[in-house]
Amino acid sequence: MSKFLALQRLNQPWLISHQMFGQLRDTINAWDDNLTAEMPEEDSYSEINGIALLSLKGTMMKNPTAIERVFLGATCTGQLCASINEIGKNPNIKGVLLDVDSGGGSVQGVIEASEALRGLHEQKPVVTFTDGMMASASYWVGSQATSIVASPSARVGSIGVYVPVIDYKEQYAEQGINVEVITNKDGIYKGAGLEGTSLTDKQKAQIQDEVEDIYGEFKNSVLSSRSVPSDAMQGQAFMGKRATEKNLIDAVGDFEDAIYLLGQEMKNRA
User: Which of 107, 112, 183, 252 is the most buried (most CB within 10 A)?
Assistant: First the structure.
């Protein structure tokens, strides 16, 4: 993937913390198209004593390239879905620990991954644990577990959606460049956000509608698993104790606490 295509990929709906998006943008801006990288081998999951340890780390993307995996720390949502489905079919696995440290990612594949995890937790107990970040897209997925444990300093939540639209029109004008977009007569949304142009009111409204649709799916998915108050679903993230008060998580603890809770859940289902 070239730097140009990578930048174009940024102009889509994102379920990601603004800090991580900034890191993503800065990494792409420093992209060297002459740099190549081999595709790293993907870890599916590990199994220990009937427990599957499944990892969700870094930026979540649908079918990330080798460069994106190496330099953006991208997790493939398609591979995540495949691992979840594989775990569900494995009779030797009695419980699942989802280890999360992700600020979220792009929308593609997230709904499917969240639905897959919800289906898995209906078959076997699933405990989500984070000692770093579980925000936006990763919270959407992780919230579908049986229970959630977070460390005291972990940041959890960031329930929301946004589309970053950067208007370069004035910068182009200063350089004497004028961009005209000619589309079919009915194509009022074609070319929306093209670099060097500004969005029309109708284009902004269409993007807003898309954001609201995705947010509605996100919110309904969370509420199908947890009773989270509306004031905790306004795009903000909370640390451990406050996340418990907002019912974003079930307990504050460490990895061992999450394993212990999973063991209790497994006994309850035995």
Answer: 107
